[in-house]
Design brief:
Blueprint lengths: L2 H12 L8 H16 L8 H14 L4 H8 L3 H12 L5 H6 L7 H11 L8 H8 L7 H17 L4 H15 L6
Helix pairs in contact: 1-10, 2-3, 3-4, 9-10
Length: 181
């Protein structure tokens, strides 16, 4: 069984939770959006794209209900303008630009940036906790450290930081004693 299959099994098991029932479909949609971004067909995100990223993030990780309403309070024009600007910049300047959007903190910004740049891993609660070995604060400084550490480890394994995050996310659940197998 390869890494992608293991990851999909983890998502399917997580989706047994009624609060995460759409996770597998959201992950497919998120990957489709990522493919469009990688092929340069998308140079900005729409508000609907941003809602998809947030839904994916909330289903894949810890649910934070206030984030969804904050995301929805952004205008489509503002989302397009800010994401276009961010996608034209390099790391970490693009991270700071994305946090201008309501509901987008540094962790959510990594979810957005990982759509267009595989060297930016998503700051998932599970993997960040494993990598940083501390209570998470979700600050820019903490996200920068996390990205640095993930990039270093991913480089040792000749994989992208995005692939490394997915591998560690899968490992987290495969090694969890409370995870239903």
């Amino acid at each position: 069984m390869n890494q992608d299959e293991n990851y999909l099994i983890v998502l399917e098991i997580l989706a047994r939770n009624p609060k995460k029932k759409n996770l597998v479909d959201l992950d497919k949609q998120w990957n489709d959006l990522s493919s469009k971004c990688a092929s340069k067909d998308v140079f900005s995100l729409s508000l609907d794209d941003l809602k998809l990223v947030m839904d994916w993030k909330l289903q894949r990780g810890k649910f934070r209900p206030q984030l969804k309403s904050l995301i929805e309070s952004n205008s489509d024009d503002n989302v397009q303008s800010i994401t276009k600007e961010a996608f034209s910049k390099k790391w970490p300047e693009n991270l700071n630009i994305l946090t201008k959007l309501r509901g987008v903190g540094p962790a959510t910004a990594t979810a957005i940036l990982s759509l267009v740049d595989p060297s930016v891993p998503f700051f998932s609660d599970e993997v960040a906790g494993m990598i940083l070995k501390q209570k998470l604060k979700y600050t820019v400084k903490e996200v920068l450290l996390y990205v640095d550490l993930v990039r270093t480890e991913a480089g040792k394994l000749n994989m992208s930081a995005k692939e490394y995050e997915i591998m560690k996310f899968t490992e987290y659940y495969n090694s969890s004693k409370s995870f239903i197998k």
